[in-house]
Amino acid sequence: ASERPKLLYTVPTFQNPTGRTLPAGRRAAVAAVAARRGLWIVEDDPYGELRFEGERVPWIASYEGAGDRTVLLGSFSKVMAPGMRLGWMRAPAALRRACTVAKQAADLHTPTVNQLAAARYLADRDLDAHVARVAAEYGRRRDAMLAGIADALPEGSTWTRPEGGMFLWARLPGSRDTTELLRRVVEHDVAYVPGEPFHAGPPDRATLRLCFVTQTPQEIAEGLRRLGRALRD
Ligand SMILES: Cc1ncc(COP(=O)(O)O)c(C=O)c1O
After folding, report:
1. pLDDT per position as a tens digit, 77-88
2. Centroid of ligand 1 to alpha carbon of 156 (angstroms)
3. Positions of the chain with pLDDT under 70
């Protein structure tokens, strides 16, 4: 109430960097506050399709009061091909014209060839089947990370257990600084993303993001062994 925000930007499903998902009750509450305060919501959802466990939670856009004030964003980057840099937007009609003008001012427009390639892919291929295959594999990789993480991180560390997406968020005990530690950790041929730059306010420097989708389960296990050795050193 004191800040009088005009807009809320949120990644409510398998958030980058934490992998957390906002539960249904909280989504309804966000929708209610937005309606009461006259707030726009930008619901950024590039990861929602990558669920390998649990039940899908409806988009904030589908809750009472949010439909005509939510811009829902999706991306083909995580489900089709990252090189396309192609996404989609579902927005109230009143906003679409302004968004088109803003996009044209920002980058003229998304290359037509990329758009046609994606349209052809959607027409000729079964994207849902592809996503189901990818999500199942990501689930196995998440399991591999959960299986090895307790041995890799110092006692007293905590971490999330994402039901989808690409990332797991961890916190080392005490006042360790993961940005500082990274310089020595990479000498062991393994890396993570320090948590510091993800904070909007004062950062918790003991946090880090681990990605579990790029490597195979065997590589993840080896990476965690290296991380464990590096942090013990
Ligand atoms: C929160 C968030 N939004 C959007 C994207 C996707 O952006 P793009 O569609 O440009 O690849 C990502 C990942 O790259 C992301 O983490």
Report:
1. 999 988 888 999
2. 32
3. none
